[in-house]
Design brief:
- The chain is mostly helical.
- It has seven helices and three strands; from the N terminus they run ααααβααββα.
- The protein is flat and about 90 Å long.
- This is Winged helix DNA-binding protein.
Length: about 200
């Protein structure tokens, strides 16, 4: 008949050290010699079963490790759309853009307008009004593809052409901003439509 042992006996750790002085296991557990033979064999059997289960889990984990070759084979292949642009089609685009620039010159009644800083300043003013974010004279001159002095002269020329006006921004401490006039707004929209069709 087996002795009635405390529950913790069945969970004795596998790796324990024996104290040479007391003949007892570390943490106060009794050495195997003090246990009945049947109980000790039962503990050893439980340990072997636990080791077998751990080995089985490890084997399954290794079998599920990432395999680049397998992953690549299972991943869907993304096919990019072929680039249909050819020198001929790009040449057609260049011709369309050149034609659009000439048409913009006609809209603003000024030869070379589309290739000048004036067109860039018009674009800045149009963008600012469409986004309701006024652009100051200083900022417009700084962003223009010319020196600030040249850009300032162009702003004056656009005012004379009644395409642009300078007004005080009440929301920014009286800073001077540029705005398209009732004449400049529709001309700008017409010119942008030309470029949109050319592209």
């Amino acid at each position: 008949m087996l002795l009635a042992l405390p529950v913790y006996i069945t969970s004795v750790p596998a790796l324990v050290r024996k104290s040479a002085a007391t003949g007892r296991l570390k943490d106060g557990f009794t050495h195997q010699k003090s246990l009945p033979k049947g109980v000790f064999m039962s503990i050893q059997s439980d340990k072997s079963n636990s080791d077998a289960r751990s080995q089985e889990v490890d084997d399954q984990s290794r079998s599920q490790e990432f395999d680049p070759a397998t992953s690549a084979a299972q991943s869907p292949t993304i096919v990019s759309a072929p680039d249909t642009r050819t020198p001929a089609s790009l040449g057609d685009l260049a011709a369309s853009l050149l034609a659009a620039r000439r048409e913009v010159d006609e809209i603003f009644e000024h030869e070379g307008f589309a290739a000048s800083p004036a067109w860039d300043i018009i674009l800045q003013a149009f963008q600012a009004q469409s986004r309701e974010a006024p652009v100051t004279v200083t900022e417009a001159c700084r962003k223009a593809p010319s020196g600030p002095t040249t850009a300032l002269r162009w702003i004056g020329a656009l005012e004379e052409m009644q395409l642009l006006e300078r007004v005080g921004d009440q929301n920014d401490g009286g800073m001077t901003v540029i705005k398209l006039t009732p004449k400049g707004q529709p001309k700008s929209e017409q010119a942008l439509q030309v470029y949109l069709k050319a592209a």
